[in-house]
Recover the amino acids of this structure.
């Protein structure tokens, strides 16, 4: 029996009766469904789009549910995972606004993993709000219409005389009213009105959408410890496990000696987990698990374990040698992915050519909460509790690996103590289920340590970016060559393509928005030797770092102000069809609805530089740095005010960020996401590095893989929300703030010191900059 209330995971099925029973809601409740399509926006297939921007052929079934109890409490089921981005609050705000709910009566629970019922639940790609905003509005509006109809039926009057206002339905002529709770039972008997009959609010009627004052719907629970994270579910008789995994990707157990481990008090059993042939996809790496009565005993038991490993095909992976190979590839012709004009002819005749090479190492997501999952397997069923970004993928892989029917697997989604893409891969959940299978009917938790997390992550790709420009009048590029060399995420899923996928190249390379008459983009080969996976902003990070740094170098070479040079390079305001740039992905969105709008890029550059005081005289050792990037259909510019002390110490006095994400649903969370992205981006650039020797990660914990701490964080971060001219659809928010930070930081360091940073991390270079 559980010793912790599991109310967050109570949804068992979506019939009205079953849903209300699962919530513990008494009779007299309204349940309303939102219509939503469920196909993965990043699925690698061509799509056609309807007038509403949704891909044609998407299913239109009830997916997301809203209940109103007899006491008026509104319970919202959130299908997207919450990891600090505030999605549960933001989506609930949208529902509450159209519903005309009182925020004090709003509650939230997390949906279990079930794509058929809830639609696509993958929380990635900065798409939760932009994909769920309209469905959630319709959900709230439909519920409001049903409540108004229920009141009209009770009063036997035309429904047009009834209006929902702040958790009540009011009869406008007489002033009489009924609360939502009083109407819930009757409303629940009505059919959901068709979509085309719904009356959505106009923006001037919004009470929550676009407003600043809405408190977090689950903030109190998070602050006072009631919130349930991956580590929190507790069950009687639980077992705990840690795993000794192969230290090299693709390695295997040769033999192990567990005699000392079994003598450790609390250790129950030692179990070998079979690995999977490469490529590993989301499957566990394999290894030897120590199962114990508590986590500490399991950890001490693993320390006593003696394992001999066969390191496999990646035993020689070494970061310095690999970087040399990437650099060599970058200086030779590669696969042409976009070709405009005649680049070679211009280079042959150019009187001035500038070139530069940029390097970004592997990074680890390192979420505050390392991977953890609890599972129970019994009588052909499996139930798990896990902080997963991908509930349906988790459910599918569990069914496949355990060999049980898909409908016998239940995935309960807890809060995530950070994710950044790491928890999109359910290898850690599969480990828990495989071990729980050895103890039928017993809950078993697999806990990763920080060392486990750093050694066995799905790392952000290492990258070398080589750029070359032939300069013409006023130092502007007449020809531009960019070779991007990096192992691809695609190597997880099939034979290593040794080339970045179109979606990776579409993150800042293929969709280069500058007015350059001759352009050649190449992608030389790079083999993958470790697990490469999603990381917040993905390949936008190395591409933005290289391109925005190179533009600053071009401006300095031309003796032109960086901002003025960047605006000139943008050319005239225009809307670019992403398909004309060879980028048919456009972050999975309609190219008709989401063209690349250079006016919006110009707008965030102007706003950020204006607010930062661009052009003002700086004291010695201090400088401003600028960068801009378009990602996840959002435009972000950043100006960092940086000081470098004589001893190489780096101080970021102020970060000024301008963001144009289209309509602003929850401004407070937009600012919070930009602030967090800024700190993360600075940490990545200044400190972040995962390196390999003999196939092994060299960083053990946060003393070696450092993240930004308070002294490195900006003293002040000012986020300015730019409203575009005209009507545009929603953009992303969670990821677009990261890419411009590293180049803005390095450009600021150059303006402060005259030292150009092309290799990350910059930590050691700053310490030695005086002697450079």
């Amino acid at each position: 029996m559980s010793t912790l209330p599991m109310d967050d995971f109570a949804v068992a099925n979506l019939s009205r009766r079953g849903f209300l029973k699962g919530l513990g809601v008494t009779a007299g409740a309204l349940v309303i469904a939102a219509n939503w399509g469920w196909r993965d926006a990043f699925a690698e297939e061509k799509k056609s789009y309807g007038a509403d921007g949704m891909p044609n052929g998407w299913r239109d079934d009830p997916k997301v549910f809203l209940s109103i109890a007899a006491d008026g409490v509104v319970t919202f089921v959130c299908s997207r995972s919450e990891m600090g981005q505030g999605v549960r609050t933001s989506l609930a705000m949208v529902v509450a606004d159209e519903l005309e709910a009182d925020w004090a009566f709003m509650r939230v629970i997390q949906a279990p993993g079930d794509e058929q019922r809830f639609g696509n639940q993958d929380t990635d790609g900065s798409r939760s709000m932009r994909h769920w905003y309209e469905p959630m509005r319709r959900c709230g509006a439909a519920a409001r219409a049903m409540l108004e109809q229920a009141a009209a039926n009770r009063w036997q009057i035309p429904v047009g005389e009834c209006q929902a206002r702040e958790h009540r339905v009011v009869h406008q002529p007489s002033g009489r009213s009924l609360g939502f709770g009083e109407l819930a039972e009757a409303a629940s008997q009505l059919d959901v009105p068709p979509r085309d009959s719904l009356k959505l609010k106009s923006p001037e009627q919004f009470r929550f959408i676009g407003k600043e004052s809405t408190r977090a719907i689950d903030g109190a629970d998070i602050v006072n410890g009631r919130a349930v994270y991956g580590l929190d579910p507790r069950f009687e008789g639980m077992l705990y496990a840690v795993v000794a995994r192969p230290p090299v990707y693709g390695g295997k157990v040769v033999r192990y000696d567990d005699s000392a481990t079994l003598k450790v008090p609390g250790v129950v059993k030692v179990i070998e987990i079979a690995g999977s042939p490469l490529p590993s996809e989301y499957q566990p790496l394999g290894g030897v698990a120590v199962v114990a009565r508590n986590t500490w005993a399991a950890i001490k038991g693993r320390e006593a374990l003696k394992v001999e490993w066969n390191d496999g095909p990646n035993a020689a992976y070494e970061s310095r040698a690999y970087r040399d190979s990437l650099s060599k590839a970058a200086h030779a012709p590669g696969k042409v992915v976009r070709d405009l004009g005649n680049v070679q002819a211009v280079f042959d005749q150019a009187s001035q050519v500038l070139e530069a090479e940029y390097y970004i190492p592997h990074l680890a997501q390192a979420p505050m909460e390392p991977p953890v999952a609890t599972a129970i397997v019994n009588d052909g069923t499996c139930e798990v509790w896990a902080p997963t970004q991908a509930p349906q993928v988790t459910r599918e892989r569990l069914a496949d690996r355990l060999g049980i029917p898909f409908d016998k697997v239940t995935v309960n989604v807890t809060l995530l103590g950070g994710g950044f893409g790491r928890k999109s891969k359910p290898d850690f959940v599969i480990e828990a289920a495989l071990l729980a299978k050895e103890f039928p009917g017993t809950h078993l938790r697999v806990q990763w340590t920080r060392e486990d997390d750093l050694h066995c992550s799905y790392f952000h790709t290492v990258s070398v970016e080589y750029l070359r420009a032939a300069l013409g009048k006023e130092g502007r590029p007449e020809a531009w060559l960019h070779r991007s060399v990096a192992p691809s995420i695609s190597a997880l899923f099939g034979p290593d393509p040794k080339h970045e996928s179109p979606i990776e190249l579409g993150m800042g390379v293929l969709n280069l928005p500058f007015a350059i008459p001759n352009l050649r983009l190449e992608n030389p080969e790079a083999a993958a030797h470790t697990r490469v996976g999603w990381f917040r902003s993905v390949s936008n990070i190395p591409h933005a770092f290289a391109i925005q740094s190179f533009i600053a170098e071009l401006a300095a070479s031309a003796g032109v102000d960086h901002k003025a040079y960047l605006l000139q390079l943008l050319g005239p305001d225009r809307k670019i069809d992403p398909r004309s740039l060879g980028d048919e992905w456009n972050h999975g969105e309609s190219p008709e609805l989401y063209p690349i709008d250079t006016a919006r890029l110009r707008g965030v550059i102007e706003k950020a530089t204006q607010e930062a005081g661009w052009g003002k005289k700086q004291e010695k050792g201090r400088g401003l740095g600028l960068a801009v990037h378009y990602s996840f259909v959002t435009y972000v510019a950043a100006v960092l005010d940086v000081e470098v002390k004589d001893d190489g110490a780096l101080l970021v006095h102020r970060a000024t960020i301008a963001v144009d994400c289209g309509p602003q649903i929850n401004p407070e969370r937009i600012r919070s996401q930009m602030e967090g992205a800024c700190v993360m981006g600075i940490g990545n650039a200044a400190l972040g590095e995962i390196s390999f020797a003999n196939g092994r990660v060299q960083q053990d914990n946060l003393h070696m893989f450092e993240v930004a701490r308070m002294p490195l964080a900006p003293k002040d971060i000012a986020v300015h929300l730019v409203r575009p001219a005209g009507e545009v659809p929603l953009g992303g928010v969670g990821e677009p703030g990261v890419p411009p930070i590293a180049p803005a930081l390095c450009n600021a360091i150059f303006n402060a010191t005259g030292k150009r940073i092309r290799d990350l991390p910059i930590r050691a270079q700053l310490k030695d900059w005086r002697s450079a």
